[in-house]
């Protein structure tokens, strides 16, 4: 199972917007004695036993189809080939979750290419994370706008302009989503809500029409980036991207990666 890195929020689309980038993790399952092998990113820090989060995700995917059966993991060899750097705002944990759930569904006989399987995978992954901004593009690819109707998670694709490229500035320090999320305000002024809503709408229109003239303004945010970017020169990095011709730039996920378009 291959799952791409994802960039969530995209400026104003907090917990709702996300798109996939051309960097993938792979999860390989084979018959054999239980072992967890990790290659690449995290190979010196990720657990190589049942405490590895991917193992639980595989079990959860399988039990979604067979709730009364236990997956015999003692007969499975797990190998993670990781290319997504962890704790950098590129959806590494979401990639692990989605790959594990997808593998579990496949072991339960589900066709991962089938629309109904992808829909189930979205529900499982978004329920687990509590928000769909990373998992939706990890499953469907492209630029996804996702919501919760109160009964289910729904996602729709937004057209990507032809020839658009993403440039990533990935710092050598980590940022934990749980910590940065805890620092965000629980309530915001109406003016801040209007600020983000208007820019989120403009961002979607910029992508869908290919008119990128206003994209630099559509990527602005006042809800999460000022908090998450306070510990490093986020504004200066975004300004540097614009000075070199970027159409848009924003903090990727919880950071510290900055993405320019």
TrEMBL record:
Keyword Cytoplasm among record annotations: no
Residue ranges constituting the GHMP kinase C-terminal domain according to the UniProt record: 218-261
Keyword Kinase on entry: yes
Enzyme Commission number(s) from the entry: 2.7.1.39
A biological process from GO: threonine biosynthetic process
Superkingdom classification of source: Eukaryota
Pathway named in the protein's UniProt entry: Amino-acid biosynthesis; L-threonine biosynthesis; L-threonine from L-aspartate: step 4/5
Keywords: Amino-acid biosynthesis, ATP-binding, Kinase, Nucleotide-binding, Threonine biosynthesis, Transferase
Top enzyme class: transferase
Catalytic activity field: L-homoserine + ATP = O-phospho-L-homoserine + ADP + H(+)
InterPro entries in UniProt: GHMP_kinase_C_dom (IPR013750), GHMP_kinase_C_sf (IPR036554), GHMP_kinase_N_dom (IPR006204), GHMP_knse_ATP-bd_CS (IPR006203), Homoserine_kinase (IPR000870), Ribosomal_Su5_D2-typ_SF (IPR020568), Ribsml_uS5_D2-typ_fold_subgr (IPR014721)
Domain GHMP kinase N-terminal: 70-142
Endpoints of the signal sequence: none
Gene Ontology terms, MF aspect: ATP binding; homoserine kinase activity
HAMAP family: Homoser_kinase
Similarity section: Belongs to the GHMP kinase family. Homoserine kinase subfamily.
The name this protein goes by in its record: Homoserine kinase
Protein source organism: Micromonas pusilla (strain CCMP1545) (Picoplanktonic green alga)
Biological classification of the source: Eukaryota, Viridiplantae, Chlorophyta, Mamiellophyceae, Mamiellales
């Amino acid at each position: 199972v291959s799952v791409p890195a994802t960039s969530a929020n995209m400026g104003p689309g907090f917990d709702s917007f996300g798109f996939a980038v051309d960097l993938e993790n792979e999860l390989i399952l084979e018959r054999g004695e239980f072992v967890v092998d990790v290659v690449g990113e995290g190979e010196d820090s990720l657990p190589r036993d049942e405490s590895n989060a991917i193992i639980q995700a595989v079990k959860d995917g399988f039990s979604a189809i067979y709730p009364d059966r236990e997956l015999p993991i003692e007969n499975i060899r797990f190998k993670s080939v990781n290319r997504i750097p962890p704790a950098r705002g590129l959806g590494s944990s979401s990639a692990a979750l989605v790959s594990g759930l997808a593998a579990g569904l496949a072991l339960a006989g589900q066709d991962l290419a089938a629309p109904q399987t992808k829909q189930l995978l979205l529900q499982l992954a978004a329920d687990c994370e509590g928000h769909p901004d990373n998992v939706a593009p990890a499953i469907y690819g492209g630029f996804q706008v996702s919501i919760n109707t109160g009964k289910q998670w729904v996602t729709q694709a937004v057209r990507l302009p032809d020839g658009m490229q993403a440039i990533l500035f990935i710092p050598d320090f980590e940022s934990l989503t749980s910590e940065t999320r805890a620092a965000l305000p629980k309530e915001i002024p109406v003016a801040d809500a209007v600020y983000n809503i208007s820019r989120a709408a403009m961002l979607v229109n910029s992508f869908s029409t290919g008119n990128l003239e206003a994209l630099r303004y559509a990527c602005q945010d006042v809800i999460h980036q000022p908090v998450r970017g306070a510990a490093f020169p986020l504004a200066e990095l975004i300004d540097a991207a614009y000075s070199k011709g970027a159409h848009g730039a924003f903090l990727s996920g919880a950071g510290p990666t900055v993405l320019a378009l």
